[in-house]
Amino acid sequence: MDSTAQQGTDRFLARVDEISSARVIGQVPGDPCELKMSARQSGQAIQLVTDPVRDCNGNAVPDGTIVTFTETYSGNLSTVDVPLKHGIAEVQMAGHNGAIISVASGVVLGNQIRWEK
After folding, report:
1. Which is it for the CA torsion 52, 53, 59, 63, positive or negative?
2. d(CA 75, CA 23)
3. If you placed Cys at 15, which of 20, 40, 91, 110 could pair as Cys (CB 3.0 to 4.6 Å)?
4. Does 9 or 78 have the greater pLDDT score?
5. DSSP E strand stretches across 28-75
6. Average pLDDT value for residue range 50-73
7. In terms of C-beta density within 10 A (0-12 exposed, 13-18 middle, 19 or more buried), how is residue 43 classed?
8. Is the pLDDT of residue 109 over 70?
9. Distance in angstroms (rounded) separating the CA atoms of residues 61 and 52
10. End-to-end CA distance of the chain, in Å?
11. Closest Cα to residue 48, out of 86, 94, 91?
């Protein structure tokens, strides 16, 4: 079942003649849909921050969802897994000159940045 347009609880009531049964279902966001990050210089490092992470219906993805930042440079690879906090993932990485930096969560790949000092 896809995520709903809004998160929260839904109450369902099934009734046949005199018999009824109520169910409360907690609706939660789906997987992240679009990931977008930005980068800025922070001393000798690079500060990477995602936009607020949402599912395809616009619901905020829960805190604790893992976002992976990857930096590829000169045949090397650095990866950092960061949990969402208040809907945003943030990390500092080395930011090597000419590095390609990408962001992903689950099967969703976000934008890439080519870092030039």
Report:
1. negative
2. 55
3. 20
4. 78
5. 32-34, 37-42, 45-50, 54-55, 66-73
6. 91
7. exposed
8. yes
9. 9
10. 46
11. 91
